Amino acid sequence: MKSVFITFDQAYYERIIALLDRLSCRGFTYLDKVQGRGSKTGEPHFGSHAWPSMNSAIITIVDDAKVDSLLDALHKMDLQTEQLGLRAFVWNIERSI
């Protein structure tokens, strides 16, 4: 199992949920408002007067076999609208209850 942490501009929400449904990634935790700034490119998302946009985040645990399909689809989504900002990170899940 892998944990996939996805951070994204709030405009992506419906598309990411639809993608998770399409890939049968049922369980996830959604964080509505998160602030941040990309490490290399992109506008800050601080929810302030100067930087009004906000990010959201989803963490999901998926089977190893689904990780590449999920990351490929997310990368394609990001390339279509790079200025919005979308990143995904993968960790190994050692144990769960």
Structural commentary:
This protein has 97 residues and is an alpha+beta fold. The chain has one domain: 2-Layer Sandwich (Alpha-Beta Plaits), CATH 3.30.70. The chain is built from 2 helices and 4 strands; from the N terminus they run E-H-E-E-H-E. The chain starts with a strand and ends in a 5-residue tail after the last strand.
Keywords:
97 residues; alpha+beta; Alpha-Beta Plaits; four-stranded antiparallel sheet; 4 strands
Number of domains: 1
Number of strands: 4
Compressed to H and E, one letter per element, the order equals: EHEEHE
- Uncertain runs are none
Determine Rg (CA atoms, Å).
Answer: 14 Å
Q: What is the level-2 CATH architecture name?
A: 2-Layer Sandwich
On the 0 to 100 scale, the average pLDDT is: 91
Shape: globular
Largest sheet: 4 strands, antiparallel
Instruction: Trace the largest sheet across and list its strands.
Output: 2-3-1-4
Beta-strand content bin: 25-35%
Q: What is the CATH fold-level name?
A: Alpha-Beta Plaits
Distance between the termini: 13 Å
Q: Please give the share of residues in helix.
A: 25-40%
Topology, pairings included?
Elements: E1 2-9, H1 13-22, E2 28-34, E3 55-62, H2 64-80, E4 86-92
Please outline what is shown here:
The protein has a 4-stranded antiparallel beta sheet, with helices on one face. By secondary structure, it is an alpha+beta fold. The chain has 2 helices and 4 strands; from the N terminus they run βαββαβ.
